[in-house]
Amino acid sequence: MVHILYHVPTGMNNQWGSCLKIWGREFHKIVDRFENIVAAHFTGHTHYDEFHVFYSTENASRANGVSFNGGSGTPFIDVNPNYKTYTVDPASWNVVDSDMWIFNLTDANSKPEQNPDWFKLYSFRDEYRVANLLPAQLDSLAHRMAANHTLLQEYYRFYVKNADPSLAKGCDDACLKERLCEIVTVESGDLSKCEQLDREFDLVSNKH
């Protein structure tokens, strides 16, 4: 069993720059072929707390991989510094939980003579009420977020690591949809799963 560590998430196509589309496509084929060996992916670059679900290249409804973004120790842009710890099953190498630790930059800047006050922001399993962090569970979580916008707003809060400037800006429906799309887009330009979640999101919005 292996864990894969790499810097830029493969589906990335936002303002921070893209992973090369063809490279992402070919990488997806490789991790799909070796899904029984690759227990998890770990990425960086975006500075946000996020996860991404991979799907079978032959059956797009079946989730078969997941990557976790570690966030960043720097506050660029409008996020709090953080680190994450992962709990891994030593037999399967599957990630069974993760904890996010941060300090509030607004508070730290108001008391420059003191060391920052680090604290645990949340546990993934506790907050999202998932049995584990395997691909099928996180695919189900993405669909729950599309149907429950309060849950998706909570995901945004953790995504920006509870940072005061980002929370003050807020996240409207377009922003929430973008967060959903990022979760299920692992090949730049492949919006098939994104469009499905968009429709589920809109079903809830149209009921109000």
What does this structure look like?
By secondary structure, the protein is an alpha/beta fold. Helices cover 39% and strands 20% of the residues. It has helices at residues 21-33, 105-110, 124-128, 135-147, 149-159, 164-169, 173-184, 192-206; strands at residues 2-5, 38-43, 51-55, 63-69, 82-88, 95-102, 119-123. The strands form 2 sheets. The chain has a 4-stranded mixed β-sheet. Strands 5-6-7 form a 3-stranded antiparallel β-sheet. A hairpin with a 6-residue loop joins β5 and β6. α4 (135-147) crosses α5 (149-159), α4 runs parallel beside α8 and α7 (173-184) packs antiparallel against α8 (192-206). The model has no long low-confidence stretch (mean pLDDT 94).
Poorly predicted tracts of residues: none
Report the order of strands and helices.
Answer: EHEEEEEHEHHHHHH
Proportion in helices = 25-40%
Which geometry do the CA atoms define? globular
Q: Termini, distance in Å?
A: 47 Å
**Proportion of beta-strand residues:** 15-25%
Number of β-strand runs: 7
The major β-sheet equals: 4 strands, mixed
Q: Look at the helices and sheets and give the structural class.
A: alpha/beta
Count of DSSP helices?
8
Q: Reading side by side through the largest sheet, how are the strands ordered?
A: 1-2-4-3
Instruction: State Rg.
Output: 17 Å
Protein name: Sphingomyelin phosphodiesterase C-terminal domain-containing protein
Keywords: Glycoprotein, Hydrolase
Domain Sphingomyelin phosphodiesterase C-terminal: 80-194
Pfam families: ASMase_C
